[in-house]
Amino acid sequence: MLAGPDGGDPAVSKAGFDHRAHPVRIGLKLSQGAPIDVFRDVWRIADDAGFDHCWAFDHLASLDSSGQPRLLFEGWSLVCAMAVATSRPRVGLLVGGMAYRHPALLAKIAVTADHLSGGRLEFGIGAGWAERERSMCGIEDSRAVGRFKEGLDVLELLWSGERVNYEGRYFKLQDAITAPAPVQQPRPPLWIGAGGPQMLRLTAQRADVWNPSVEGFESALTAAEQLVRLCEEVGRDPMSIRWSTQVSFDGGDPGAAIAELERWREAGFSELVVYCSGNDPVRAATMAAERLLPALRT
Question: Does domain 25-129+188-296 fall into CATH 3.30.70.3340?
């Protein structure tokens, strides 16, 4: 539904909605391969420049092209530090992995981050796809979508602040409660990373923002078509879900980065995240603040 048979505007469906109607929000992300002082510098740039959101990611190990480990800090610890180090941008993981933590623990961590940030948490979550990490750490990898769905159930029940019970295949709660509840009620905004049909269906049912887990622009457009169709199947307005993307930027060619981000925006992706890459993430963040941010807001 992104592109009609006449080759029309790819952001408009047969029903006439247009994802370009969503306001553009621009984020800055640093996730790996840098010492902690560099993270602090990038967060300061995001705060001072007025980026809308600031991100890390959630993995247990990352290897470079020669098989050597990259510097990689724990994701939620970074979010909590980010929450304290900044005052304006919304903060989160793009995206967290449900497989890495029991959802009751994850609910508590997220509440802590929401309070530390004064209600600025964006809760990004996916199933946790990295096969190398699952193998390294012996993480259960069967029925990941079922575990993800039940994990979402547990999170939302615990965030209610009430005593709750839950009887699932993978998770169980008995007279469970978490206090305090999140600052944001009924919960922080939910970003789901998804690309396959089962995860896209859960996205259609439950997400506020979708982040495609597929590679490349055309694959994302195909997944977006599927998401629109699934929204219609479950009785949800497709416009109620915003779409996000991440574009890598090393600071070297602002014009190309702007063109790429505008291409995604024209296709209906309104949450645009600049992923600081290369050997100097601080330079990339600085150039993003000086060149990309003003251009994308005009």
Answer: no
